[in-house]
Amino acid sequence: MHPKFLALLLACAPAFLRAEPDLKIGIIGLDTSHAPQFASILNNPADKAHLTGARVVCAFPGGSADVEASASRVKGFTADVQKKYGVEIVGSIAEVVARSDAIMILSVDGRAHLPQAREVFSSGKPVFIDKPFGGNLREVLELAALARATGAPVFSASSLRYSPGVQKLRTEKIGRMLGAISYGPAHLEPHHTDLFWYGVHATEALFTVMGTGCDTVSRTHTTDTDVATGIWHDGRTGVVYGFREGKALYRVTVIGTEAIRDQPDGREYADLLKEILTFFRTRKSPVPLEETIEIMAFMEAADESKRANGAAVALKDVIAKNSPLHP
User: How far is CA 8 from the centre of its chain?
Assistant: First the structure.
């Protein structure tokens, strides 16, 4: 068949005959449960949440020897993705980049994300970076600067952002919003800004319903809890209530002039993956980088407030203090 006639035939064919090929996804970091969960949803047709159109083809295990949650799990998760889901294990980040259309940086240690991104961003391929975006705000700002300098498409989010309950809260009729409270686990890890390690989930859920515009944060810290209260520029208050004992449940309550609504616990990784796959194809992040930075700055300001005995700390001040241009 003449090539020109074949091209014309394909152009006129029904959409299902012109379907895009599966995206080849590479993973960096197999020290988090997200790696086998994502691989199952994408590679395993028997998974009830299975998504088509993409496949995890290769992965670099990574791992951090000084983080127990990483060092103790990387070997098991590597075996899972390889044996259960057919993912090829490679020996370097460069191999992941070469063999993939898009990359997920899933390393549980946020400190690993910046050096890993340095090896990925120059490829121009879209990159999803799992929570936390970095180990502290300075690393987050360096990552953002690197993404802008290289033009790399970048997206980061907690799965809680796309929880059906949280998304429903955004459309509830409550009158004028006065504020919101987001509850969830806030276990600590000594190498990370306190809330970055686990409190990031509850913090991102708060910003999902509140939006950006937080000016200051004050924090109350005890052995078992952290309560970080943000004041938004329009006078609304947003509270992250983190706990270190009890069940690992999440909940968001929004308070308005006409009603109060609750979002019960629950999240689906497939909802986040749908957003990731759309991002990989469009190269447009559903969450602006500026919003991700503000979420991280909220948590960094909470750390500053803890050191200042609960005094209010301005987000603009911690951003300036942690800027890569700041000495």
Answer: 42
Q: What is the pLDDT of residues 67-94, one digit of tens each?
A: 999 999 999 999 999 999 999 999 999 9
* Token pair recorded at residue 160: 């809680």
Token pair, residue 249, equals 């449940």
Residues 147 and 195 in one domain: no
12 has a pLDDT exceeding 70: no
Task: Report whether 60 contacts 95 (CB < 8 A).
Answer: yes
Range of the domain at 132: 20-159
- Counting residues of the chain whose pLDDT is more than 70, the rounded percentage is 92
Could you identify the residue written with the tokens 């987001």? 182
| Cα–Cα distances in angstroms (integers) from residue 225 to residues 184, 185, 265, 302, in the given order | 10, 9, 19, 13
Give 229-245 pLDDT, tens digit per residue.
999 999 999 999 999 98
Residue 254 lies in a domain: yes
Q: Which helix (H) or strand (E) holds 115?
A: helix 113-118
Task: Answer with the one of 133, 159, 185 that is the final residue of a domain.
Answer: 159
Q: Beta strand 102-105 with 177-185: parallel, antiparallel or unpaired?
A: unpaired
Q: Where a domain ends, among 109, 144, 159?
A: 159
Residue 21's pLDDT band (boundaries 50, 70, 90)? confident
- Vertex 140 angle, CA 241 and 243, to 5°: 15
Residue 57 forms part of a structural domain: yes
Provide the CATH number for the domain around residue 249. 3.30.360.10
CA distances to 16, 70, 163, 222 from 9, rounded to whole Å, are 14, 52, 42, 68
Check residue 22 and report its DSSP letter. Answer: P
CATH number of the domain within which 119 lies: 3.40.50.720
Asked whether the beta carbons of 287 and 131 are under 8 A apart, the reply is no
| Token pair for 235 | 């006078």
Separation between Cα atoms, residue 216 and residue 193, nearest integer Å: 17
- Distance of alpha carbon 245 from alpha carbon 11, whole angstroms: 59
* Tens digits of residue pLDDT in 255-308: 999 999 998 766 779 999 999 999 999 999 999 999 999 999 999 999 999 999
